[in-house]
């Protein structure tokens, strides 16, 4: 009998030791929220995650990409708890398909665009861009329509834009170029990126001289170039909406994140991260 007890005790200690190696013996791992986040908002959600994780005692698992591709992955059944799109169209489609928690579709921010210019051409006096270099150095400056037309319409510089079929910021940029009647001159010089993060990578690699990218992306990673914010009335509104997916097993935590993003302190932080406040009231989530 003593031998059996000793054997059982040793076996229990061995199991506990193995559990310790994988995160603790008898300790529950913190709950995890799986987020599908448009790449334009990734820098902002990374900046906000620590505050939310410490408040909720949970972990955020972030998958970033173009809203269009993330939407397709959700429709294909990939397990996410929430979808933070950079538009409203795809959350609406998911809602109509019955794949969301009722009343969970909410605007969490409004996007802005920026014109990013490589330092090489912005300091090249022969290119004509040096005239605006002083303004470009001030990241809180905004472009006028005339400046935007002069910068984009002059020369043969390549312009990086996210794929308008997949990325809402790319769609807004192309629509703006068409509105300003610049599209015929620029169409052959556009370099398409998969999403906002990819656009920034292409610019840093020198595959484009200028870029029309999300302002938040420019603020987060724009040190290798100069950039100016484009006034929001230049382009179609970018209403960024999030939705809680019906398949989630962490509905309460998902609701907390929705409320966290819409809270007044976070909305003020978002303005410093390159986004406009959502300016919407939340009717609550059932």
UniProtKB/TrEMBL annotation:
GO terms for molecular function: metal ion binding; molybdate ion binding. Molybdate binds at residue 67. It comes from the Bacteria. The keyword Signal applies. One of its GO terms (biological process) is molybdate ion transport. Signal peptide: none annotated. Keywords: Metal-binding, Molybdenum, Signal. Belongs to the bacterial solute-binding protein ModA family. PANTHER family: MOLYBDATE-BINDING PERIPLASMIC PROTEIN (PTHR30632), TUNGSTATE_MOLYBDATE_CHROMATE-BINDING PROTEIN MODA (PTHR30632:SF14). This is Molybdate ABC transporter substrate-binding protein. The gene is modA.
């Amino acid at each position: 009998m003593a031998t059996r007890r000793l054997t059982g005790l040793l076996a229990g200690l061995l199991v506990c030791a193995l559990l310790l190696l994988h995160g603790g013996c008898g300790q529950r791992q913190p709950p995890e929220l799986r987020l599908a986040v448009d790449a334009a908002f990734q820098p902002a959600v990374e900046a906000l995650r620590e505050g939310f994780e410490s408040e909720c005692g949970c972990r955020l698992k972030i998958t970033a990409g173009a809203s269009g591709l993330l939407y397709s992955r959700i429709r294909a059944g990939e397990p996410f708890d929430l979808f933070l799109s950079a538009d409203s169209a795809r959350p609406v489609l998911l809602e109509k398909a019955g794949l969301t928690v009722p009343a969970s579709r909410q605007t969490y921010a409004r996007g802005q665009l920026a014109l990013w210019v490589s330092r090489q051409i912005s300091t090249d006096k022969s290119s004509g861009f040096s005239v605006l270099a002083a303004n470009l150095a001030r990241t809180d400056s905004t472009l006028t329509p005339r400046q935007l037309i002069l910068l984009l319409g002059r020369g043969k510089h390549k312009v990086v834009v996210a794929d308008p079929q997949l990325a809402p910021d790319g769609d807004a940029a192309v629509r703006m170029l068409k509105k300003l009647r610049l599209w015929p001159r620029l169409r052959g010089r556009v370099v398409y990126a998969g999403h906002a993060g990819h656009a920034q990578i292409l610019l840093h690699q020198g595959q484009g001289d200028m870029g029309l990218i999300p302002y938040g992306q420019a603020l987060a990673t724009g040190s290798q170039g100069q950039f100016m914010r484009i006034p929001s009335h230049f382009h179609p509104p970018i209403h960024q909406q999030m939705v809680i997916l019906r398949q989630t097993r962490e509905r309460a935590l998902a609701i907390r994140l929705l409320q966290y993003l819409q809270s007044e302190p976070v909305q003020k932080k978002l303005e410093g991260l390159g986004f406009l406040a959502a300016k919407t009231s939340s009717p609550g989530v059932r």
